[in-house]
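From the pipeline queue, job 12 of 40. The input is one protein chain; the requested action is below.

Action: predict structure.
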Amino acid sequence: MAAVQIGGSPKSEPAREGRPNQSSGFRCLSARLCALRPDDSSSARTEIHLLFDQLISENYSEGGGVAPEDVCTLLVQACRLVPLNQNHLVSKVSQLIHHLLNRLQVIVDEQNLDFLLAYAISAIQQCSSWTHMEILQALAALVYCNGSKCQKYLPGLLGKSGILMKLSDLAQPDPEVRRAAVHCMANLCLSVPGQPYLEEPYPAICFRAFLTALQSPKSSDMDDITFCMLLQNALKGIQSLLNGGKMKLTQTEELGALLAVLKKSMFHGLPGLNIELPTVLYPTPLPQYDGRPPVKPQQSEPSASRPTTNKKKKSKVKSKKIQQGEEEEEESSGEREVAPVAGLGREHLHEGDTPCPSSRGGQSLPVEGSGTVGKDRVPLPIRSSGWKRVSSSESDYSDAEGGMQSKMRSYQAKVRQGALACFLSTIKSIEKKVLYGYWSAFVPDTPELGSPQSVSLMTLTLKDPSPKTRACALQVLSAILEGSKQFLSVAEDTSDHRRAFTPFSVMIASSIRELHRCLLLALVAESSSQTLTQIIKCLANLVSNSPYNRLKLSLLTKVWNQIKPYIRHKDVNVRVSSLTLLGAIVSTHAPLPEVLLLLQQPCSSGLSSNSATPHLGTPDWCKKASSGPFLEEASVSSPKGSSEPCWLIRLCISTVVLPKEDSCSGSDAGSAAGSTYEPSPMRLEALQVLAHLARGYFSMAQVYLMELGEVICKCMGEADPSIQLHGAKLLEELGMGLIQQYKPDSTVASDQRVPVTLVVMFWTMMLNGPLPRALQNSEHPTLQASACDALSSVLPEAFSSLPSDKQILCITMLLGLNDSKNRLVKAATSRALGVYVLFPCLRQDVIFVADTANAILMSLQDKSLNVRAKAAWSLGNLTDTLIVNMETPDPSFQEEFSGLLLLKMLRSAIEASRDKDKVKSNAVRALGNLLHFLQPSHIEKPRFAEIIEESIQALISAVLIEAAMKVRWNACYAMGNVFKNPALPLGTAPWTSQAYNALTSVVTSCKNFKVRIRSATALSIPSKREHYGSVDQYVQIWNALVTALQKSEDTTDFLEFKYCASLRTQICQALIHLLSLASASDLPYIRETLELNGDMVQSFILQFLKSGAEGEDPGAPHSSHERDQLVRRALEHVSSIQALAGDTTRRAIIGFLEDILTIYFDSSGSQIALPELTSR
């Protein structure tokens, strides 16, 4: 009987001619197999058996060179030779498929896949049940990364009566077959980027099957290792579904069930623990908090420019002996006696004896932070490449290698690692606000006195014998902590809470404290360098997100003192992560008094006090770095009382500029061959820490200003662009720190500031050094952009004192770089020009202002939104400069400034006001300033009339449009600027009523109270009654303000309530201002309103007089005398209006104002009377 032919099978192809690097054994065997023809004789079957055995036993790990297409051709030929009624041959060909595809890492192409899948499915349907195990293994290898190509077979595999659904069912008598079926399903779910995904409803079907497998207890006929492999396959399947992005966990029950089985699997086989969990975890209701995302701090450098400390490992095909040997060696290096956790017992948790350390086996799980430091890499999520295909019939172990117990522990550890990998994918696929509902299920809390501690991720970190599992648990905890700043911000324990219940804020604070305690315990107990790196990274994440300004002191002190010794650890990854943690401490909620005290500790404090790191020696860098040539110059800028040098700054400087010490050189594989310095990631992290210190603790950094200047020059003169870039970032931070000291609202005493003469010396050093060269380095545009940012941080007071050639150099380079083709450089240049145009020594230079204006207008036409946004910001600054110059006594600037350029600026600003919100917000600011700046000589020209009308229409549109609130706020502010120009025909022009209608609409109905405040401010700016137009227009504005006062507390957003008082203040000022300008024709309408709402208006004006001005207008009255003078002037004005005989309107309004002043003076105890007013 001939072999069965499967319909649609591809034609037989002869084996290819061997390539030079192809395995000769495979080539010969393949040629022999392809020469055979279907034959049912006993001799033919024997020959096929022998060929299959030889192909399986061939050593493919040596030589290589077997082409994937040749493998597929051979497998098709093998299946064609084997009829489905020959169970033994079907079993053997299934083993061959599984073996070759696994060992040679081949993914079957679509044409051959169609034939092989049809064969395998037919084999399961027709062959004896004892062959199902091998056939399912072959099927798993075939569908690996081919799920999207199996669509037509999915109903037969995953449908209601599908093969895999039946074989994976709990009723399946053979546990090995059940596990293999789940494995097939997991491989079907594995998605390949760029390929189509499984169509619905199959992802949901698979998810339910995996969840059932995880929820079901081990049956009596299933051995422990098979059960572990079943759990691994189910976990990998769920992880593949989540990573593919198609599986959305939107149902609480669904997510709760998954998290419950993940928590259970996380502790599977952990020695000494036996936990029982509900089948579904339910979230804890969280209190309402601001749903808006927090404002992200400006990144200190582009993410692409900051190298990580990890190096991606390329997957290699290894023989099992080699792989096992390496893994056992890696595991044994990280074994330890497990630190006991106090009082573990909640959730039916039972303590056992102290577990024995176990050795690792099976597939490797790459861990972030592992490997040596070298080239940049993207940190990998924990993902097991070894889960690709698991063989149940082959063992990686023998009794001689550790026995069944060691093998069992290894499989259990892989289940825990798989659960953690799946949990990490779950975290990435759900919203953080959903995740934090389950915070208490996975993050420890301080146990109450006498109560046991609940099991959590920290239980694994402290108790798991496998360093890989500990590292995985830490990665998951880091993922939970990442971005948790808003959630953790509610924590507070600064005062003792003695209540009948525990507030949510106290509970979160308790959890933060427990995390600190447990992570520091783990730090001391850990012996594996890779896991140690993860602990420190996790601590850095915790520090970055914890609200220490709301917590009791000492948390950061404990972290600080315990991390110090690890700065000199033998492993470079540990040293880098230690610096990262120190950087997190000095950047969180800076400046913190606790951290300031830590920075002032003696240089050697705590650096050799930790017994856990016996290799530490005396910190010689303290002595080396402290003898620098710039101490004398630096001491000039030292603030009083800062005699103790900052050890962290000294450490970072020495790390960047001094040769590395011998004690740390053993594991610095990341440093270049023959390099005398620390590895690049170590130096980059040190520069990062210096930048954080300059930003948050400038009073400490300023002592070392000139020395840091030398460090910057050295870094920017090196060949490594990353070092150059971080040097430029440090320069920018130092420059910004100096600017902050000299701001008008600075709290730094004048004798504590860095003297301007020293700042001039500092910038002269920079401009004589490599900074100009970096600005001209077109090969590295990111560095150019950072150098532009650094150049924009020059202190204005120092710039004017720089040598004239240096001033010209700065200006010339910036104007030249504005023509750059690179968008990063162009954006940075546009911003820098916007800073320079505000410098007092440059803003009256008509030529410079005009050149800057032309450069900015050119950037406003750029295709890049970022460039246009920066250019619009700079245009706003330039127009601010025009207003400042207009207010100076010397009119020469206005006279010399080109009217044609003004027209160009107005047109560009109008065009920009129609752009995206990022551009629009500053474009409307510029329009307001330009219309304010226009002189009568400009307005009289016909060519300006149309552009003025168009500009005001653009502002009206921006006030009313449903855009970002910043746009509307700036538009109202700009409208107020327009009203300040007395040369404009306000009150008579047709656009007057449109402008007022827009502002009155906003003041009464805008959801954002800051926009309402700004519109009320704009309405109070016109200085003459005729500017308000007709009586109807005036009355409309008056009524709108009264209505706005009534609605000043009407809001559904509780975040707006803090602006209520400011809004009422501004409206009251506007009403009083309108009264002080009212005409006789306006009074009847005012009286009518007061008759209806007089009590309400009176009460709010009295609040205004008593509480003071809380508006945002810098010209608003702040003293009580100024406030009551406003009402007095309004009273005097109304009293001076000539009224007709018998008209009582004026008298009623006078009485209203007098009552307000009388009540106010009576309540304040003032003896001032109003005889001159009451006698009228």
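Job complete. The two ends are 128 Å apart (CA to CA).
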